[in-house]
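Changelog entry

Holo records now carry the ligand SMILES as an explicit input line rather than a separate metadata file. Below, a converted record for flavin-adenine dinucleotide, shown in the new format.
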Amino acid sequence: MTTFSAKSGWTPEAEIEFLARVEALVEERIGPMANEVGKVDEFAWDTFRLLASEGVFATAFPTRFGGSEAPMRLRVRIIESIARVCSAAASMVTGTDLSGRPIAAYAPPDLAAQIVPRLATGELQCAFALTERAAGSDVAGLTTTAHRQGDSWVLNGIKRYITRAPVADMFIVVARGNEVPGAAGLTAFLVDRNSPGLEVGPMQPKLGWYGSPIAEVFLRDVEVNDSRRLGDDGKGFTIAQDTLIRARIGHAAIAIGRAQGAIEMAAQYSTRRRTFGRSLGEHQGVQWMLADMATQLEASRCLMQACARRYDAGDPEIAVHASMAKVHATDLGMRITTDCLQLFGGNGYLKDFPLERFMRDAKLNQIGEGSSEIHKTVIGRHLVRKAANALHPCLDLSGLES
Ligand SMILES: Cc1cc2nc3c(=O)[nH]c(=O)nc-3n(C[C@H](O)[C@H](O)[C@H](O)COP(=O)(O)OP(=O)(O)OC[C@H]3O[C@@H](n4cnc5c(N)ncnc54)[C@H](O)[C@@H]3O)c2cc1C
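Structure line, unchanged by the conversion:
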């Protein structure tokens, strides 16, 4: 049997085999638990432990730290497969990456070697604490402070909407570490949950993504040794962006997987429900709806996969492509889950059927890790800047009056 090994890496056979294992896990274990997970907003420990024990979290981490370091082209297929039945489970895979990447890539090597192997096995959990009450989209405006005192830093501020804060053992905290305004003043730290002065607030009730609770994190004179700084002073924004690119591609994969599951359920329902003497699926209007959704979803999947390959190839414009993949997949995912629910009629609105869960979960993909509006701004700004600097000679308008 072909399996991944650090020596041979991810051969095509190893990729196929791992995906088949994930598929079996989805059908036999994660899928059957998903409806229960979607009923109560508390951390889905069984799902988390299962993903950890099957080596799914490890795919995010370098082999030197005990991970299996799957290429992004494989990661998106794993995430998509899981999201087809359970958003919470898929978000655990992307969330482990989001909160672990700053440690694996930017912590001093001995600190990374202590912690990352335990993140890969699910023994430890980390949360990524960037957002604040007055700084969500405008991350560079965050006001949590980090003052240097000898060998340590003293952190003060409030972070909000922090996924898995109720259960995390540690937090990546991005704070204003020097007097420089804007993004250049930000520095990232690894902060232990049991640090004196760190308090996790009560769980914040929310619309969807049950199984993956959020809370505020309060930092009052929390002392962090300089050995727990991640990257250089002033590199916090860069670290956050590097981490978020991966998370944004992950959001696209979750949105696509969920939309795939929604279409499959709607198509199945259309064979069972009869109106006007025929099954729903025999009405041309319903067939066209399904056809439009499936075609648009396939286009979005191609965009996401192309983006994943660009990531693996080190494309210097990957941030813009990640924004494109995310905004396209997540906006489409919202439309598809809404339309699939519509195909279920009244049943779609009931908690008995999974579509209402899918629709509630879809909304977060359009908000988290940068909202759709912000990603469109990133893409548009990039196009305008690029056009101002260099044009293909055939498209040069400089001789024309504007
Ligand atoms: C369930 C959940 C989990 C989360 N998990 C985490 C986490 O683990 N860690 C973390 O750090 N954060 C987390 N977040 C925060 C999330 O990333 C932010 O909510 C998101 O970036 C948007 O920020 P905001 O909520 O402050 O919205 P705002 O920035 O206040 O924006 C409000 C609205 O205005 C729009 N808008 C803002 N500026 C512009 C503009 N220039 N042009 C056009 N439209 C604009 C936005 O698109 C949005 O629709 C989570 C949020 C949720 C809801």
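Spot-checked after migration. Residues 12-120 form a domain with the Butyryl-Coa Dehydrogenase, subunit A; domain 1 fold (CATH 1.10.540.10). The CA atoms of residues 227 and 350 lie 52 Å apart.
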